[in-house]
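Ticket #4471: structure output looks truncated?

Reporter: J.K.
Steps to reproduce: submitted the chain below (411 residues) through the standard prediction queue, then opened the result file.
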Amino acid sequence: MSRRVGVVDLGTSSVKVLIGEGEGSGTIKVIGVGKKTLNCASSNVTDSPEEASGALRDAVERANEMAGTSLSSLYFGIGGESIHLELRDATVSIPDSESPISEKDVSRALDLARANSNYGERIISARPRVFSLDGQDGVNNPVGMYGNRLDVTVELFTATSRIVENVKASASKAGLTVRGIIPITWARGSFFSQASGPHEGRIVIDLGYNSTETSVYRGENLVHWGSLPVGGTQITGDLRVRFNVETEDAEKIKRSVGLVEERAAETNFEYEDFSGESKQAERAEVQKVISSRVEETFDMALEEIEGTEYMEFTEVGIRLVGGTANMPGLVDFLEDRYAFTFRVGLTSPKVLGLQDIIQDPIYANAVGLLLKCFDMFTAKGSPDEKDERSPFASIKKILINLVRNGLHRET
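Returned output as attached by the reporter:
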C-alpha cells in the first residue's frame, strides 16, 4: 500500500508545498506541488502567521488539486535564523556491569542530553551523533554491549517557542495540522545518504531571500552549519536604491541581467524609475552592483569552513540551492572568483516525477523534507493513529530506532 505525505518548506519569503507518494521500490514520486510568494522583505514567513496562513492555504490547495488528494496534516520545515544548532553531551553509569546495556540505559542517556533546555526554546529535532563506552569512542550501537559508563553526544535543533507557536498558528488559520516540524538543514542531508568513501563529504550553500546557510555533511550527517542574515533581498535592495526603482522592478532587473557577460551590442537596458520616467543603464553597472553583494556574501559563507577539516569536501564541488541560485551567470562568476567548482541544485535517484520541479534549486529543500519523512517512516515503521493525530512525533522513539538501526560513525 502506498503512503502519501505532504511537506511544507517555510522559506524566508515563500511557501513551497510538495506531496509525495511512496512506492514499493523504495522510491518517492512527487505528485503535487504548490508555491506562493509572500511580501516578507523585512521578516521571515515564520514571523508573519497572518500572511503565511493565506499563502499556506493557497499552496496546499494547489498541491492537493494536482495530486488528487485532500491532505490537511503536513510536515513543516523551517531553517535560517529561525533555528539553532547545539551539541550536548551526557553520561550515565551502568548499575550492573555484568548485564548488557539495554535500550532503557540508552533512553536515560538521551533524556539527560535533552534536559535543561534554554528558557523559551523548543527542541524540534534530536539525534545521537556518537556513543562512547568506558571512554572508547565510535560506538555505533551500545545496546547489547558491556561497560560501566555510557557517553552520548546528541545533536539538537531548537527553535524559540514563539516560532513554533507561529508555525502552528499559521497552519491552524489555514485549516491545517502540523504533523511535525523538521529542520530543513537536517532534512537536506537525506540527499547524501548514499555518499561514502573519500567523496562522502558535501558542502551546500542555501541562498534564500533573507538568509544564507552553509551546511557541511559527512554522508547524510550534518557536521557543520552556519547561517547569515543576508540573502537575495539585499541584492534587490542595492539595485532598488542605485536605480531608484520599485522593489518589483529591482527583482526583474536582477533576474534578467544577473551576472551574465553580454555582447557589446547588448550593453544597455531600459527601465522605469519611481517617477515612471524611462531610463537606460549599462549592464556592466548592474553587474557591478550585484557582484559586490554576491562577493561579500560568499566571502562570509566560505569563511565558515575555511581552516577546518571540511575544506577537502570542496573537491566534489559546492552545491547551491535556494531561489537566488537561479540568478543568471552566478556559477561562472563564483568559479572565476573562487578556486572551487559550483553546481546548482540537488537530486536523488529515489525521487521521481515532475522533473522540472525536483531539479529546480528553489524546491531542493522541500524535496529534502520528503526524503527525510520517508526515511523516518522506514526507521520507525508505519505511523500509528496516535502519531497521525499528534503534531509532534515522539523524539525519543525516533532516537531509539536510530540506535536500533545503527548510526553512521562520526570522526
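Triage note (M.O.): checked the attachment and the full C-alpha cell line is present. Residues 381-396, 402-411 have pLDDT under 50 and may be disordered.
Status: closed, working as intended.
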